[in-house]
Amino acid sequence: MRAPRSAVFPALVNADAIAEWRVPADMSSLVHEFDAREGGRYRISLTYDAPDATGKSTAHTDTYHGHFAEIVPDERVVEVFEFETDDPAVQGTITQTTTLADVDGGTEVVIVHDGMPEGVSAADNELGTRMALEKLAALVESDRG
């Protein structure tokens, strides 16, 4: 991203920014709860725009809740979360680690998911993460104006 870590990091720990960027292009986001501190909890719903898309929590929505396990300003955010679902194939705790590193002209952002349930398609997760990162880049790069 063509922005310094000091510009990218706040978008990782701000509820309004999260609602804007951490959602795939074909979904909308609602942040129910968001306490961005180590141990702080959050709850977010992502709703598919297409009426025929199937959610993990309800007919068209993926809702997940979790907590911030580690926050290192301008370096790393570690979150532990799980989908709210009765489907055993998508149940389980997921650890998401977002790491920021300096690169020439900006910041490299790497998001790693550990413990992804077998019912969550790796390809879909990768695509959704890439879409979200594109939105994050647009957000932080536009703020540089």
Short description:
This protein is α+β, with helices and mostly antiparallel strands and 145 residues long.
Low-confidence parts, pLDDT < 50 over ≥5 residues? none
Q: Could you give the distance between the termini?
A: 14 Å
Output the CATH homologous superfamily: START domain
Strands of the biggest beta sheet: in what spatial order? 1-2-3-4-5-6
Number of domains: 1
* CATH hierarchy, class: Alpha Beta
Number of strands: 6
Number of alpha- plus pi-helical segments? 3
β-strand percent reads 35-45%
Helix content: 10-25%
Q: pLDDT average, as an integer?
A: 94
Shape: globular
| Strand/helix succession | HHEEEEEEH
CATH topology: Alpha-D-Glucose-1,6-Bisphosphate, Chain A, domain 4
Radius of gyration (CA) equals 15 Å
Structural class label:
alpha+beta
In CATH terms, what is the architecture?
Answer: 2-Layer Sandwich
- Main β sheet profile: 6 strands, antiparallel
Family: Belongs to the AHA1 family.
InterPro entries: ASHA1/2-like_C, START-like_dom_sf
Pfam families: AHSA1 (PF08327)
Domain Activator of Hsp90 ATPase homologue 1/2-like C-terminal: 2-141
